[in-house]
## 1
Amino acid sequence: WYPFYPQEVREQMETFTFPEIPVSRLLESSAKYYPHTTALVYEPENFIVNYLEVNSLCERFASGLQNRLGVKKGDKVAIYSRNYPEVLIAFYGLAMAGAVYVACNPLLIKAELEYQLNDSKTRIIVISDDLLPVLKEVVQERRTSLETVVVFERDKEMKPPLLGRATGTYAMRFLKYADVFSDEPPAKPEINPRSDLAGILYTSGTTSYPKGVMISHFNVVSSSIIYGTTYTGKFPVLDESGFLKCTNFEKDLSSEWEYPFRYGIDSVLAVPPWTHMMGFLGQLIYPVMSAMTIFPMPSFDMDSMLEMIRRWKISFAGGAPQMMAALLSRLDMDRQDISSIRAWTTGGNPTPVALGERFEKKIGGVISEAWTLTEATMSSTKNYANRSSSRKFGSVGIPLPYTEVKIADTETGRREMPPGEEGELIQKGPSVALGYWNRPEDTREAFKDGWLYTGDLGTMDEKGFFYITGRKKELIKYKGYNIAPRMLEEILYQHPAVLACAAVGKKDEAAGEIPVAFVSLKEGARVTAGELMEFVNRQVAPYKKLKEIRFIEKMPLFASGKLNRRALIQML
């Protein structure tokens, strides 16, 4: 795959060295080099601040954590909220204080939240007021190590005058968000970027419990840099004071651009939750390093999203293929202008070829499909986003710079499979996490000799492009044959009536499992289950034929937009 890196990227790789700096330095660097670039725009509160102002707010929050709440380096601080400005300020504030970010998905129910707080030994949690009922139950039962709950009131705290409009009063253990901030200078803890944790992000869990992935400062910084090369073609420079200086190629500042993103100019619509790795790295960390303007979106609303893209000329957005399919299915999509989007990043599930081709015609730039997982800090393989790159729909691209990926046999994991043959994808490189928090056995199973065993199945072609075919644990086992759900789904997506689909295995005494597909139809479309099965089954080998189709109004998704196959299996 090395020849498919753009020439300018290959040239820089010969001399580039990853900086060993804490995550907070990314914000501080943007405040230094792009101080007056707008950092955050949140319309409900008319909250518009530049990078210098955001950096100051984060420093004041860090000081309050240290001087008022006694937070020390290594302490666990959880955030349990959707994407609000307060979350960004809290995250970078706790990073400045040397605390460890514990990401709590806002969709967690009481038992799940309690599990994560106990597993991570979290002392302090920052939450939005709408989630207080869940958290109060956890606190009342006193089964966690929580000492303080910091509550912010949505759409009130950031209205001018800042931090002055919240009216709630809280009992012991509960503290108003505005009361955390301090004007004392924050202490600067010594951070070892390679060993100190920046965060613990929990997997969605294919086993009986979610696992906390230990992400170091070095993981986050290096992943943000190599992820960014796919959009700018340039590596940053570490200046004499230890700050990152990010610049563009001159051509990319003109209408004849090659790479889509411009430091200090472009904007991002932050839809995926910041508590999930896609939102965390791709739309909280990387945009700050790039001095982009961030538009937080607490909950996905398609009409609002389209309006924001049109009015603010948003240049960077993204989401799972299901979001792309939902947009294209709108009856008024021909009247929607999303041509300002210079790059749309997608992952979570593979993008069907037909869907990708249709969606790219609607935007003004390119779709960059990627594959990764939380344990790889969202940096594994990706299609470069420059206009002249070799991109392949259906492929998740090539390994990112300084990243090795190979296909290993599924039995021993030691034999590398030749091009075209299926196996498990394994990965090595600076973005591979340190392991699982409090799970030494799981860590030994997934992290071996520097390689991350991902559990994802795929192939590599002769040119080094990778293709995802499924999960080791998602294979449908029919009479001893392995059937990859992805293959059946690709065919279903070719049918003009299909909006979304997923193939799963249904237990069967005679066959072990039989392939069943769940299908959501486009608005106004009419087709029978028999017609769809015939459409698929005439294109596959006999043992791969669908035995049943079930129509479903809406696919069950995780908060990240990723398909929840377990929910479908439970429906069976």
## 2
Amino acid sequence: MRTVPLLPAAMLSLFTASAQTGSPRLEYNQSGFLPSREKKAVLIGQTPEGRFQVTGAINGDTVLRGFCGPLLSSGNSSLKTRILDFSSLREPGDYVLAIPGLGLSGRFMVSPHAMEAEARAALKGYYHLRVSEALEERHAGKWHRPAGHPDTAVLIHPSAASGKRPAGTVIRSPGGWYDAGDYNKYIVNSGITVGTLLSAYEDFPAHFDTLRTGIPESGNPLPDLLDEVLQNLRWMLTMQDPHDGGVYHKCTNAAFDGMVMPGVTKLPRYVVMKSTAAALDFTAVTAQAARVFAGFRDRLPGLSDSCLTAARRAWDWAERNPSVIYNQDSLNRLHEPDIRTGTYGDGDIADEWFWAAAEMLATTGEKRFTERVVQGLSLPLRPASWKTVAMPGYYSLVRAGRGSSDAPSSEATVVRNRILRFADSLLANASRNAFGTPMGGSPSDFEWGGNSVAANQGIVLVNAYLLTRRTAYLDGALANLDHILGRNATGYGFLTGFGRRSPMHPHHRPSEADGIVEPVPGLLIGGPNPGRQDGCEYAFKEAETSYVDDVCSYASNEIAINWNAPMVYLLHAVRALSK
């Protein structure tokens, strides 16, 4: 094949300059491409029509030629793009993209191992977030640290007081994960997080059964994913009042800690108020956990039964207290000390009722939960988040249907069809999007934690693929993974520690306070957020460009357990389904 002549150094810099400059840029998945899947890059800028070539990174031989796509206008910024499709390239190797007159891309790989390290790191990211446990150097590397908050002497806040546990009562609530950039633990956010990770295991058990991530438990009889889930599940079980079955909303300081390492401050910790949302999220997760851990009774005797008992008691409490909404401002007018940490308040809990009922029905088969499930089938469908949890219930219902030999019920048919219609709308968004991804179908996709929107959209598409085996759904899911890992308007891959350009200054206290240049690896950053609620300086303010790699920016540069969970699911799903 013909060899492409080397281009002048000035041209080479055009594709490696800082993102969002006026120069043309070429953006793509910085973590590489799987041989059997779609491969696309996006040329950003007002560029003329032209051809592109894929060449070997070492020998410069041309292995593929193609035309840059038509000039597209983004609906989420003032950017113009052309899409380069080189999906027919299937031979593993290291390559570069060349556009005559413009320049060369950085090196990228095509490999069956593409995104393998990222997938392991995203799951191991939870190890770095463990609360009451020292992180040893042999497992955490240079990010090793002492244990954080022990949480063995947590106070009952006056808002959570009851006759048998008055204010000031000391309880134990150790373990779990730090929620985000802060050092607190929240049941509502833990709910969607643990539920997503359990769903990943339910959908791909053979994949996770052999996965090792280098956590202390690696090599024991339990899959690493479930070992990590147990770290937070066991903490969640401590948050249920043993006397009435209610669930405390959070375990927290009264106010956020400063930018210090975990455990440095010794401020009092509290469990705060029971809420219906917390009880229902707890019900959903413990019911799902009972189902999953039933397969490990010999290794964890009693756990499955304990989880189901806890789920039933939390459900019963919610039925007795159907509308206890967590409102922190109202709480602070009645009780001291004031609580100023994350609220995770949700005034509409119809979807929480549906999710809890769906998980209880899937686990127990008891018809008493059917009415709540049927009521929830008319709820609007959105990608999962801490405050929109109908979709996880849908996944569990269709998963239960896939494992049944009975004819599908009318409810199961409704669930299946709604998932597929939603997935089809995401594919339609991709066909209109200047970056060719379902993510960005609307400017509203770019919100606080927008990268988790992309990942959760990907989970919708994976579930549509599992229902139909239609490859377009899997390619759509991968396109959103491409978005997160570099095929986007900012030029960043948003998983810490990976890619040619990833965040170095996340809003994450250990990464800021540990004195190590590189941030803790394997954590998904929130991403562009035009709301810019943090008041930091943003050079770019349009929907898909409003991102700044600065510790100040909790609105665009924070990490969170509920964002990492769909990233774990999506990375491992794409890899498992592409083997």
## 3
Amino acid sequence: MAILKFDESSMLGTVREIDTRKISVLVEKDEDLRKARVGHLVAIEISGASETWLIAIIERVIRFVGQQQDSQDDKTKKETTDESNEQVVNNVRLALVGSFGWDATIGKSVFTRSLSQVPGITDNCFVLLGKQLETFMAVLSEAGEGEHSLELGKYVIGESAKAYLDGNKFFQRHAAILGSTGSGKSWTVASILERAAKLSTSNLIVFDLHGEYRELSYARHLRIPGPDELGIASDELLYLPYWLLNAEEMQAMFIDRSEFSAHNQVMAFQDAVVVQKKEILQKLGKQDVLNAFTLDSPVPFSLDEVIKKLKDMNEEMKQGARGLKQGDFYGQFSRLLTRLNSKLSDKRYGFLFNAPESEHDYNAMARTATKLMDYATKGAQVKVIDFSEVPADILPVIVGLVARIIYQIQFWTNHEKRRPLALICDEAHLYLPKKEGKNPVGLRAIESFEKIAKEGRKYGVALVIISQRPSDVSTTILSQCNNVIALRLTNGDDRNTVSKLMPESLESLLDVLPIMDIGEALVVGDAVLLPSRIKVNKPDEKPLSAPIDFWSEWMKKIEKPDFDKAVENMRKQRRK
């Protein structure tokens, strides 16, 4: 039976001050003060409540030495002694995190985050050490070992106890995995992916910006094709033909809002697209779709025909009273046409404009959705999308496009058939930055993800935001993450950002972030029973993110470098 029992060896002190979740403890003896360690746990005895304890985390240990005030009588005596006139006050500050006690309804001890009681002045406080710590941590581990548990690692304060997350709450309420370069973010992500991949119908989609996860054996791998693969149809290649873009995304790609004729460009471009889409639907006899048609309806159309229409309007001459004169839009679309032709001829954008013919038929979007969202096929529970071939200037639009397609298909799936999925957003600061001062291209992705952050959980779409620079990530998106796994963070701005995601009573725990070891994480949120410092399990298959050992590598004797090959790879945009 897991019951806490303490003796004098565990005594810390007595409660002297109470402020909601903050407690101040008076420690009488110096030897008792030495038992206190920042980050360790304390049990507070509740007067009149048998076998019920409040659990708190030590935030600060203080030993104050001051001069004792003399009484008036002492001053008049003017006695001179060699005895010290110092007054010592030992104080420990705690943050309450939950309650521990016997639950008669289930016949065992439990820990809960709720605080139905508060301590009283002079209530006794004991440090959780040795056997009592083992007892408490065993209860935590047992509570986590449910059918929906996700093993993350081991508690730093009690390494014999496994640390679990509630898998339901972790994904239901969005999550953020934050840490500086080399802190262990990637292996934390890989550890979670490994465990999720073992579930029969899990569905996780990883946005991989640098190819770090491209060798995970249990994942389905997709990648945006590079310039030397254009036109090749393959299950591994993910084309995103231009007709998948909505109106806002197309405008961000093609139209410069600073131009005087921008409003005319938008109007003419949209009108030409609408005409082309309607013609396709009419040819296919899709009257039911035509009845609900909008500009954003994902229907294949010919961009060449749109360009031809714009060119005709740009060069149109009208008959006037004295002969031919320039049309209403003469010369207004010259720059737009130049941008369109430039984008179409640039092979870096080939996955948009040079996709195989099969990617332009009416059923192509359903096939793309199957690639992205399939979970029923063996090995499809985890999908890794490699975006490393996407040009940086349109990366936010393309990542946002994929996220939007996934969300919209999930939204329009019948409720009975809908299965939950999670978007794992690696290097989120690159495409989900704060809105201030950002160009329209960047804003499109942010708007798509903000919608998912606010509404996605209702339709079974979860976000896991991963970043080494949380201070650069959209605050709207981060504020929706109710679970935080914070690894080592050295930058002050980043730590301040993380502190805003923490409950006020636990902000002081963040002071440890700059000095944590690789793979150690401070885990706070709805998914973890006790806000804790956890040593994350290393995955069996590590991502390609390990730092290079420079000094060791420089010591090796190797063959002559082949820079000719490297230059050719750069020209071909392929490391083969």
## 4
Amino acid sequence: MQASQPSISGTRDYAGDDAVALQTARDAIAATLRRYAYAAIDPPILESSSPFLNRSGEDIRRQMYIFPDPGGREVCLRPELTIPVCRAYLRQLHPVADAREKSPKRQARLSYFGPAFTYESTSDGRYRQFYQAGAEFIGAQSRESADAEILAAALDALEATGLAEALVEIGDVEIRNAFIDQLPIGERSKTRIRRITLRNQKDTRIGPAVSAPQTAAFEASNEFGELASLLASVEPGKAELLIREVFALADVRHVGGRTPEEIVERLTSRTAQQAEPISAELIQGVMALLNIRAKPEAAFKAIRDHFRTFRIASIDPVLERCETRLRYVNAYRQRPVALQFNVGLRRGLEYYTGFLFEIFAKNLMQIGHLCGGGRYDNLLEGLGADASIPAVGFGIGLDRLLLALQKAQTPVSSAMRAPQALVVAAGMNGHEECIRVSVTLRDAGWSVELDSSERDERNALSYAAKRKIPYVVFAGAGKSKNGQVRIRRLNDRTDQLIALTFLESYAKGESAAGSPGKKS
């Protein structure tokens, strides 16, 4: 017998209960976002690579699946869904400017679900093809209000899937930018430091630079180090021409996720500048700021003290916006959420401009964050809008979420996916009547499993109990009377004979009385 073909590394098959759990989580999240008035959008998996290469940053560009299509265009499998949703918004929903209004904006709440692809190290809950569900709130002028709504919607969506306890980390890019912008160093060094602080924590190289007084220690990547050294010996006016000719001869379209134009600019700028000295005190100041991580009130005090220590202008306007945002979040919550403020929080995407957050399963921090998001007010302008458009959103990693629910042994997922009724033929020739009964119950809003295995009554009841199906409906000949079905409620083990003409009303009444299977 020929062995089955193995799956591609970093992918997994969702089948059986796993597939049902994935669909259940998706449905629970979608239902929650509908209650927040988010409309569904479904952008294509195949996208142009350039928006991601230009806007996402180093962490994403190194891991993208990029390839030429048969027509010679450079395309990619989408590595995330925020940029595709924003592109679709600009194409489908953003009004065209006219003479009376320079930059019209249309507010939109959009939700999505689908696979995304990044080539990264794999582990449980982390795959190269993974599923994301999320939402984007575009065009809201009240930023703090929109931020709070997005975080509240994300928490409600996770709770709807069965996540019992969440831990939330929040931050704000504006805080570290305000500090770096006022350091007594050149703009080029500020840019490099700022770029590094935006990168994912595991890749940040500020730590080792504390002992190095030169800005060169801050370089985010040294992938072109040897070539840059070689070009430094070339006449400045000829360096760019040399690089372009080499790429043209080799038919280079991208290297490490960079376009040839980006590589040329990066190399020539590197050879044209000398490293600017930065004092260890300033480097340590950046590190100390990024290390502030505490409950919001304590974090805000530490941030204010830190700015005063370095004689940097007041950070109060930014922190006041943070405090307003938190008041709005608390107004959404019926019960408090475990929350801490982390100045060093960074999402690994360069397009974030302000508010950031990540949500973890409490006591399962080793899995990593289940949901992350933030504000990206400049992204849509970079994608073609005529002006900046405020926007904020989140994405839930469903693979990681399902792993967290499994490890927490959350019972709600199995209860949610169980049908409300099992319809079984009471005799040998009752399948046609079972079909009619199933249709009636589904019309009443119940989820129904129609038995097709010809189980006897004992096996049918055992199967329903194992699956936690609250009702078993016996239809057809046998113990039931003409024009009636017999319904067994498993929670109290009682039987009822219900007329077929009254079956839909009965089902609706049971649903109205509470969860199916409970006494009314």
